[in-house]
Amino acid sequence: MWSAEAAAREKSDALLASAGWHVCDAAAANIHAARGVAIREFPLPGHGFADYLLYVDGKAAGVIAAKKEGVTLSGVETQSAKYTKGLPAGLPAWRKPLPFSYQSTGVETRFTNGLAPDPRSRPVFAFHKPQYLARLLDEAQSFDAAQPLGTGDAPVLIAADAAAERRGPTFLARMAHMPPLIETGLWPAQGKAINNLEASLAANKPRALIQMATGSGQSFTAISFIYRLIKFAGARRILFLVDRGNLAGQTLKEFQQYDSPYNNFKFTEEYIVQRLQGNTLDTTARVCICTIQRMYSMLRGKDLPEDLEEVSADFLPPLSMGTPGRVQGEGRGGDGGGVRPPRPARIQPGLSHLKLRYQRH
Q1: 91 neighbors 54 (Cβ within 8 angstroms)
Q2: How would you list the strands of the sheet with 273-275, edge to edge?
Q3: Chain centroid to CA 94
Q4: Domain 4-144 classification at class level
Q5: Nearest residue to 57 via CA among 26, 36, 87
Q6: Cα–Cα distance measured from residue 354 to residue 78, given in angstroms and rounded to the nearest whole number
Q7: What residue spans of 86-244 are helical by DSSP H?
Q8: What single DSSP character describes residue 315?
Q9: Which of 143, 198, 311, 313 lies in the 20 to 30 Å Cα band around 137?
Q10: What span, in angstroms and rounded, lies between the C-alpha atoms of 262 and 192?
Q11: What are phi and psi of 239, to 5 degrees?
Q12: Is the pTM higher than 0.90?
C-alpha cells in the first residue's frame, strides 16, 4: 500500500536529485559516486535509522529527517539533531556531531547549520547543492586553521581589509564580530539604522525593516550596510530590489559613487555590481540590482521588455509579457474592473537560490 511516508520519500528523492545529489540505498552505497551522495535509511546504532545520510566529497556531513506532509517540522529538529550524533565510529566524517541537518516533508524543508554560533532550523526552498555545503565546510576549516593552536580563545578582531572568513566560520559568527561602524559622513539616524540592523542579524533575526523619512538618505544607508555585510560578514550576493527601471539606474550610480570609509576605493572598484537588464545573473557579481517586475519574470522563465520595468507590477500579465493593463472580468465580484493577481512563481533552473513571494495589500 502506498503510504504518506513513501510519498514524502519520493518527493525528497526528486528534490535531492534536482539539487545534484546521487541518491542510493545503503546496500548499494558508494560514497565516491558523486560529490554529494544521499544514502537512504542509514542505520545509526542507538538512534534508529536516518532517512538520509549525506556525504560530501567522501565524508559524512549531514542527515535528513523525512516526514509525511502536514507534520510540523519545527518539532522534528530535536530528532534530526540526535541523528547527527549517531554516526558509527570509523566512518569518515567532516566533524562530529555532523554539522548539517534537514527536516523535510518533500513540500516544506527546514535546515539547521551546526557550524553557526547558535544553531536553529530555518525554512529553505529546497535542499542545498553539495557544492554549497562543501563551501561552508571549507570556510569552517579555513577558520579553524587560522586560530592559535592549543587555545580556546575567541576569535580576535583583525584588520578591516583582511578576509571576512577569518572573522568566523559562518555568516552569523562573522556578524557577531563586526568592526565598529565608522560614522564619518553619516547622519545620526543612518548610523543608528546600520547598527540596529547588524545587531538584529547577529541575533539570528533574518528579517528586518528600516523605516526612514523621505530625503533622509535611505539609499546611502542601504549601500553602507551592504558594503559592510560583504566586506566583513562575507555576504556572497545581495539582491537590491526596486520597483521601477529608472530607480535601478539611479541606484547603480549611487553604488558607483560610494567611497569606502575603510580605504580609498569606490564600491564598484572593490566589488562587481550588476544591474539586471536581461535574464542572466553574473555569477561574480556581489550585488544585483533588479526590478520586481524583472525578478518575477525571471522566476517564471519569461523575457521582459525593458519598457515594462516602468509599469506597476500590479498591471503585469502573469503568464505573458504583453501589453500591461487591467484584465476584463476579473475584478471583485466579476465587475470587469479588477487587476489580474500574479500567480505563484515557478522557480527556474539556475535560480533555485532565489525565492520571491508577491502579495498585494
Answers
A1: no
A2: 238-242, 287-291, 273-275
A3: 22
A4: alpha beta
A5: 36
A6: 28
A7: 130-146, 171-175, 188-202, 218-231
A8: G
A9: 198
A10: 19
A11: -95, 120
A12: no
Q: Which residue carries 525578478 as its cell?
A: 295
Contact status, residue 43 vs residue 30, Cβ threshold 8 Å? no
Q: In this model, does residue 6 exceed pLDDT 80? A: no
For residue 298, what is its C-alpha cell?
A: 525571471
**Prior bond to 97 cis, omega within 30?**
yes
Q: Residue 42 corresponds to which amino acid?
A: F
Please report which helix (H) or strand (E) contains residue 65, including its range. Answer: strand 59-66
227-264 pLDDT, tens digit per residue, is: 999 999 999 999 999 999 999 999 999 999 999 999 98
- For residue 10 the three cell numbers come to 519520493
Quick one: which of 333, 209, 227, 354 has its CA closest to 286?
Answer: 227
Burial pattern 179-190, b for ≥16 Cβ within 10 A else e, equals: eebeeeebeeeb
Give first-to-last CA distance, the chain, whole Å: 45
Neighbours of 299 (CB within 10 A): 18
Q: Which amino acid is located at 263 in the chain?
A: N
249-305 pLDDT tens trace: 999 999 999 999 999 899 999 999 999 998 889 999 999 999 999 988 888 888 888
Domain boundaries, the chain: 4-144, 164-334
Mode of pairing for the β-strands spanning 109-113 and 287-291: unpaired
Which residue pairs, CB below 8 angstroms and at least 24 apart, start in 201-206? 201/172, 201/175, 201/233, 202/172, 202/175, 202/176, 202/178, 204/116, 204/118, 204/120, 204/172, 206/122
Q: Which helix (H) or strand (E) holds 54?
A: strand 48-56
Helix (H, G, I), strand (E, B), or coil: what is residue 273? strand
Q: How far apart are CA 152 and CA 150, in angstroms?
A: 7
The three three-digit cell numbers of residue 125, written as one number = 526552498
State the helix-helix crossing angle for 218-231 and 245-257, rounded to 10 degrees: 60
